[in-house]
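Dear support,

Our group has been running a series of protein-ligand predictions, and this particular one with BES is the one our PI (initials K.S.) wants archived with full inputs and outputs. We had some confusion internally about which version of the output was final, so please treat the block below as the authoritative record. The input we submitted was:
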Amino acid sequence: MSHTLSADLEFWFVQHADRMQRELFEFLRIPSVSARTEHAADVRRAAEFLQRSLETIGCDVEIVETPGHPVVLAEWRRAGPHAPTYLVYGHYDVQPAEPLDLWETPPFEPAVRGGRLYARGSVDDKGQLYLHIKAIEAILAVRGGLPVNIVLVAEGEEEVGSENLADFVRSNADRLACDGVVVSDSSMFAPGIPSILSSLRGLAYFQIDVEGPTVDLHSGSYGGAVVNPATALARILASLHDDARRVAIPGFYDSVRPWPETVLREMRALPFDDGTFLGETGAPALGGEDGFTTLERIWTRPTCEVNGLLSGYTGEGAKTVLPSRAMAKVSCRLVPAQYPEEIGRLMRAHVESVAPPEVRVTVTELHGGKPWRAELGGPLFDAGCKALEAAFGRAPVIVGEGGSIPVVEVFESILNAPVLLMGFGLPGENAHAPNEWISVENYERGMRAVACLWTTLG
Ligand code: BES
Ligand code: MN
Ligand code: MN
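Confirmed final output from the archive:
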C-alpha cells in the first residue's frame, strides 16, 4: 500500500467533519427539482447556496443564466498559467421526490440511519458534487493553495436532459479549456470497491401518441368497427422487440461497434452474482437479450424500454369504453457509435411502417445524449487510480455503466479533454426512487480521494 492521504489533510477532514455535514444538510434541504416549474426558485436557491459555498472557500464564482436553470461557474486559478487546469462537473438539480408516502423520512429533511445519509439528491448528485467542494476547501485551508487550477461547473438541468449545457460549453469553450474533466455522478461496483467508469450509454427518448376517435366511445356501440388506439399502441410497442428480446427496429444495431476485448475481460473478472442482483430488483426472474450476461446487457448492449403508458379507463371496477387516445413514453439506451438523431430517424420510420392507417400516430423526440467510452489511460486516469487507492485502501476496478450523463461526451468532444468518472454511490442507493441514500463512509472516502487526486496531479 504505497499511497495514503497525507496526515495534515486527514487531520483537517476529521476536525471539520461535523461542520461539513451540517452544510451538506443545508444544501440537501433545498428542493431543487428541475422538472417542476413550481420549484424554479428552489433550483435558483441551490445555485446561490453553491455560489456562497464556493466563494467562502476562495473561488471566483459566477451564476450564468441560460434559457432554463442557471449554471454555477467557479474558478480557482492561482496555481498559475503553467500549472494544469481541471474541470469538475456535477449537477445540483434533483429528480422529483414522489411518491412521498414511500419515504421513511421526508426527502428534503436529511437523516442518517445505519451509516447511510438519506435525502433526495444525497447521491444523485448534490452529495457527490459537494464532496468535491469540500476536498478543494481542505487543500486550500491546509496548504494555502492548490497545485492545479480548477474550474467547477455545476448544472441545474441534468435531470431534465441538459438542454442548455452544450450551448454553455460551446460558448464558454475558452474559459472551460482544461487538461481533463472529473465527474462524480455514478456508483461503485460494490461496497469497498472503488470504481472508474469505462463507458456510459447514450439516450434517445420518445413519446408515441396514438389518436383515434375524438372522444371515448361506447365499446359496445362502436367496438369492432373503430380501431382501438390502445390496441394499436400495444401492437406498435410489441413490434419493438423480437422473440430473442433483440430490438426489432430495422437498422438499430447497424452502427454498434464491437466492445474492446480488454474491457470485456475486466468485466468478466468482476465478482458479479445474478442472484444478488435479482434480489435487489425484487422481480421474479431476470431476462434480456439472448446471448449476453447481465453485465453485458446493461453495460454493452443498446436497449429500447417502455417508460410509461397511458390510455382508457383505469379506475375502479369496469367501464366499457373504446379509448380516444393512447400514449407511451419510450426510450432507447445507446452504445458507441449509435447517435440519438439516427436512432430517432429509425424509430420514426419503424413506427410509421407498423402503424395501422385507421389511427393517427405521432412520434415526438424528447431528449437525447450520445454514448461515451473512456480512454482508460493518461495522467488523469493514473492519478485517479492512485487517489482511489489512497482513500479506499485498494486499487479501483474498471466498470461499465448503463445510465447516461450526456454532457460527458460534450465535454470530451468540445474541450478535447479526457474525462475521468469516479463516483461514490453504491448499488441499491435508490437514485430517482424513494429513500435515496449515500453511504456516509463513501462520502468521507470520496472527499479524501478527490483531495488526493488534486495533490497527486500537482
Ligand atoms: N447520475 C445519473 C446517471 C447515472 C445513473 C450514472 C446510474 C450512474 C448510474 C444521472 O443523473 C441521470 O439520471 N441521467 C439520466 C439521463 C438524463 C438525460 C435524464 C439517466 O441515465 O436516465
Ligand atoms: Mn446524476
Ligand atoms: Mn439522475
